Amino acid sequence: MLRTIAYHLCPGSRFIFDTRNPAAREWEEWTPDRSRRTLHHPHLGVVEAWNDIERDDVSGVVTYETVYRAISGRQRFRALSRIAFPDQEGVAARIAEAGLRADRWLGDWRGGEWHADAPEIIPIGSLDAR
């Protein structure tokens, strides 16, 4: 992904993206008990939704599933994603390897500066001119 960003950036242009900070351990909130909620769908009516995860302790990759169950018809829908949680040092190394430079690090989308307990890792940068 970072090499693709570098390939498409013009001199003077910027990049920004986010990843979740593994130190925040956000996946611990994604259990069925903590995430169960009721939604109202215009065609299906009342829908119960919840999340569940499995985390690979070696890679740190979280397999994240969201389940939606229509109460009226007992229909179930599932969405499955895999999310990596690289740390800030790993992100910085990959940015440099791709020929990019991070000029600033944010820790959230409100503009808060990066710190070790921030929920997000958000680099803002450009092509490395070196």
Describe the model.
This protein is α+β, with helices and mostly antiparallel strands and 130 residues long. The chain has 2 domains: 1-21 and 86-130, Rossmann fold; 24-84. Helices cover 16% and strands 40% of the residues. The chain has 3 helices and 8 strands; from the N terminus they run H-E-E-H-E-E-E-E-H-E-E. It has helices at residues 2-8, 32-35, 88-97, and strands spanning 15-16, 19-20, 37-41, 45-55, 62-70, 76-83, 100-106, 120-127. The strands form 2 sheets. Strands 1, 2, 7 and 8 form a 4-stranded antiparallel beta sheet that branches. A hairpin with a 5-residue loop joins strand 5 (62-70) and strand 6. It starts with a helix and ends with a strand.
CATH homologous superfamily identity of the largest domain: Vaccinia Virus protein VP39
Large-scale geometry: elongated
As a percent range, the share of strand residues is: 35-45%
Name of the CATH class of the largest domain = Alpha Beta
The main sheet comes to:
4 strands, antiparallel
What is the share of helical residues? 10-25%
Integer average pLDDT = 94
CATH topology tier name of the largest domain: Rossmann fold
Number of strands: 8
| Radius of gyration from the alpha-carbon trace, in angstroms | 19 Å
Head-to-tail CA distance between termini: 21 Å
Tell me the domain tally. 2
Count of helical stretches: 3
Low-confidence stretches: none
Secondary structure category: alpha+beta
* CATH-defined architecture of the largest domain: 3-Layer(aba) Sandwich
Order of helices and strands: HEEHEEEEHEE
